[in-house]
Amino acid sequence: MIGIDVVKSTVDRYMIRRRKPPSPTWRAFLKNHIREIIAVDYFVVPTVRNQILFVFLVLAHERRRVLHFNVTANPTAEWTAQQLVEAFPWENPPRFLLRDRDSIYGEAFQERVENMGVEQVLIAARSPWQNPSVERLIGSIRRECLDHVIVVNERHLKRILKDYFDYYHCWRTHQSLEMDCPESREVHAANRGHVIESEDLGGLHHHYERIAA
Questions:
Q1: Would 3 be classed as within a structural domain?
Q2: DSSP class of residue 195?
Q3: Average pLDDT for consecutive 10-residue bins of the chain (213 residues)?
Q4: Is 109 within the bounds of a domain?
């Protein structure tokens, strides 16, 4: 293509030979399919009355957005399947669903997922590190929120988590997002106004923004 006639065998002689055919890296695969992947998981929260509540999460790998959550004291496969429907009421569901092998994802759940056209990807038994994004989220919820409050009941827990996710989406920065938030926010110019401090979760966290005078 540059006007030089060279025999192909001569070019082959100087080309670097790979030991195996080139293939896309895992990072490239995730980048290409990240918009099509969600992860689901449960975690438990004890209340002041020693009741155990179960929190169900639906997390989009793209920008680490929490698409849906709910709380129940009696989780079932039917209830879990309904949560997935509520997470995608008006839009097309993702292509892949990443989950563990818990028995809560029973026949009713699997049938509903199949009818939605979603392919389930099961991690190995007792291997939560294979579902790292949602496990990291659960850890953040505990460290940054639930470890600092006493949960009274189901309604109270829902309110706490709603407030946390408002903070998580709009103000909490992520290294994987280049220190941006799941809901990308505007970078304020220095001459926009004074920096104002605002409280989140009753003062447990704070965020800062410039407000025009």
A1: no
A2: E
A3: 62 68 64 89 97 98 95 98 93 91 96 95 93 96 97 98 97 89 88 89 92 78
A4: yes
